[in-house]
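Sequence in, structure out. Go.
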Amino acid sequence: MNKKMVKADSGFTPGRPFKGGAGSACPSVGRGGNGSVESRPPHNISAGASEERSDVRAPDKIRTCMGCRVSKDKKELVRLVISPDGIVVIDYKGTLPGRGAYVCPTESCIREAFSRKQISRVFKVSQIEGVEEFLDRLRKLVLDRISSLLSLARKAGKVVDGREAVEKGMEKGTINLLVFAEDLSPLSFKEMKDTCLKRGIGYYTYLSKDEMGGLIGKGERGGLGIADASFSSLLGKEFERFKSLGSVGSGGGKNG
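Output:
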């Protein structure tokens, strides 16, 4: 009998190679230590999992998390589907055909769903990968999505690079979000972080200087400014998702 396992299907083209944490395929992200995310979310992104909204939502867009059992807009959840050959797939884009089930993109909800064997029960499969493997796959999909969004923002002309240009954009108020390289010098990191806090600009740490430059087809870059509210909101959502999934070797990210 074939072993039935959870596999990931991102639908996104991964960016530059990531730096993995020790003993894990999931990359290390951020300056919070042990792969955690040092950050300040954009104003329109709340930390952690997405909050319930009070607006009226169409019933066909509401789904229930297999972990916490709370009903939410399906856009706030991660969809799983069963493939024709009986494999449970993470459908991160939410577009694959087949019967789906949903879970909040948080470490606590995913662990709860696994501990209660909800995934096996819903899809009627006897064996799937363990929770740690599932979390690593989902983290990788989130990071692939972040790289994809950064590449799209660059192609749309919404990425500002180079320290002088970034600082000028921050002074003019045209930058909505700043993404630091994780290997930025401590002094440079503190200076940029303090400026973000002073001006109320969201920030996250991501990749190395070399990898950051590779995303935009240039040499080393210590930081990239996002000069677009829509891209900033989408990136902030994905970074917050990554934090709520629990970073490698830590209990999750922390706000700056």
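Check: The helical segments are 107-115, 118-123, 131-155, 163-172, 186-199, 209-215, 229-244. The domain at 145-255 is CATH 3.30.1330.30 (60s Ribosomal Protein L30; Chain: A;).
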